[in-house]
Amino acid sequence: MSAGLLDGRVVLVSGAGGGLGGAAAKACAAEGACVVLLDKATSRLEKLHDEIVLAGHRQPAIYPLDLGKATEADYAELAAILDSQFGVLHGLLHGAAELGVLGPLADVKAAQWDNLLRVNLSAAHGLTRALLPLLQRAEDASIVFTSDSSARVGKAYWGAYGVAKIALEGLARMWAEELESAGRVRVNVLVPGPVNSPIRRRSHPGELAEECPPPGTLAARYVYLLSPASHGVHGQTLEGPGEV
Q1: Structurally, how many domains does the chain consist of?
Q2: What is the distance between the alpha carbons of residues 151 and 104, in angstroms, rounded to a whole number?
Q3: Of 2, 12, 84, 148, which sits 20 to 30 A from 199 (CA to CA)?
Q4: Neighbours of 225 (CB within 10 A)
């Protein structure tokens, strides 16, 4: 059996219970990675875990965590557990997302606003900050943020989710610039484009599911960005499946 692009690498996927996160996690496992599956939905994580094992890949780790309620102490605990089990982290894929209810900004209540920014923006910073020391131990590590082609342009009615995605890309650019000189951790943003994901079906209810490609079409792009094959790709915002 030929070596996979991620053989020997440890990759954490947040939002692994979702459409994009799940597809990315399975693709990473198929390429030889030991995948850490993070999501608040334990049942989805267990199902994904079983699918990966049944496919004959390395047994993934499960880490249930509600990013809407996670604290700095929770992120520190996660980092400590990964440190004790693996001692290093080669990839961090930010796939967690929560759409909320689309509508006018005037209708977004404070609690809804705070929750959506915590899940879609603050959690990405919290995870990155806590796991950075583990990533820096790897000779070649990669962080991939996931944006949204519809929300990122600041259109009306995308609410806190849209604001979070706009800010997320800014956050990724700042991390990329701050980590560039050390040359050990690459940071990029992937903008999936229209795919048949749960969020897409909710945000575009009039769209037929078959009009959009499945989340798996992005799997190769995620694997590429997380693997040594993308060495030198840093501070980029990449759109769609693209060429790898």
Answers
A1: 1
A2: 14
A3: 12
A4: 24
Angle subtended by helix axes 19-30 and 42-54, to nearest 10? 30
Give yes or no for a contact between 30 and 57, defined as CB atoms under 8 angstroms apart: yes
Verify whether residue 224 is a known catalytic residue. no
User: pLDDT tens, 110-150?
Assistant: 999 999 999 999 999 999 999 999 999 998 999 999 998 77
Q: 130: domain CATH number?
A: 3.40.50.720
179-197 exposure pattern, b = at least 16 Cβ within 10 A, e = fewer: beeeeebbbbbbbbbebbb
Long-range contacts of 61-67 (CB under 8 A, 24+ apart): 61/34, 61/35, 61/36, 61/37, 61/85, 62/37, 63/12, 63/36, 63/37, 63/38, 64/38, 64/39, 64/40, 65/38, 65/39, 65/40, 66/40, 67/14, 67/40, 67/96, 67/118, 67/119, 67/123
Residue 4 lies in a domain: no
Residue 131, domain extent: 10-239
Q: In what order do the strands lie in the sheet with 61-64?
A: 61-64, 34-39, 10-14, 91-94, 141-146, 185-191, 237-239
Helix (H, G, I), strand (E, B) or coil at 92: strand
The pLDDT confidence band at residue 101, using thresholds 50, 70 and 90, is confident
Q: Is residue 244 part of a domain?
A: no
Task: Given the residues 63, 75, 161, 224, select the one marked as catalytic.
Answer: 161
Distance of alpha carbon 89 from alpha carbon 85, whole angstroms: 10
Are 102 and 158 in contact by the 8 Å Cβ rule? The answer is yes
Q: Is residue 214 part of a domain?
A: yes
Best CA proximity match to 234, nearest among 170, 169, 143: 143
Residue 40: inside a domain: yes
